[in-house]
Every structure is written in C-alpha cells, then in structure tokens.
Write a structure and sequence with these properties.
With 107 residues, the chain is an all-alpha fold. It has helices spanning 2-8, 15-28, 53-61, 65-73, 77-83, 89-106.
Length: 107
C-alpha cells in the first residue's frame, strides 16, 4: 500500500503530530513509521482498525493530502531508504536511481 511509503517518510512537524505518533506507537507497541510493513489490516473496525495503514496515515496527517506529499517530497532519501527496506520503497528508490537517472542525464 502506498500508505506504508507515506509512513516511511513521516516526520512530525509539530507537537500535535508528535503526540499522535506517540499514542499510536503505544497502542501498536512499535513505531509505524519505522515498521509500516507490520500494518497489515484492511479493517476499519476495532480492534484491528489501528493496524490498518490507511487509518494510521489518516490519524497522522489529518487526511490532508498535501501533508502526505510532504512525507515523500521533503524527507531525505537516506531516511526513506532506512525506513523503506521492508516495504519495497528502498528498492524502488534504487531502481529509479539505476534506470531513470541515467536516461535523464543523457538527454
């Protein structure tokens, strides 16, 4: 799910986001930004609701697509690579660098 990649790049911007993330970490017993691959539920009903990556992204971003965008546009590549190993994000970034960048640079 693309939400896992959003979570891989999520960095709290303010105390409210930090508070929400801490509450989620306590409820899950892990950091959903570092281990988003563990969020495997697609349920919108309790008790599995908090394990739905769509729900976690919604809670952290307030449903704001612009805030979601910031998670992949403004977060450093090294951070994305570190958190995205288990979600395929690291492989995706590597493939873009290996295949697309050489094409762009030669044109």
């Amino acid at each position: 799910m693309r939400e896992a990649w959003v979570l891989n790049g999520f960095l709290p911007f303010n105390p409210e986001e930090t508070r929400i993330l801490e509450e989620i970490k306590i409820e899950l017993n892990f950091d959903p930004c570092e281990e988003s691959h563990k969020l495997r539920s697609n349920s919108w009903e309790k008790p599995d609701r908090i394990r739905n990556p769509k729900v976690v992204v919604e809670k952290l971003t307030g449903g704001n697509m612009k805030r979601e965008q910031q998670c992949w546009e403004e977060t450093g590549l090294e951070h994305l690579r570190k958190n995205g190993v288990q979600t395929g994000l690291t492989s995706y970034i590597d493939e873009i660098e290996d295949r697309l960048i050489p094409i762009i640079l030669t044109e």
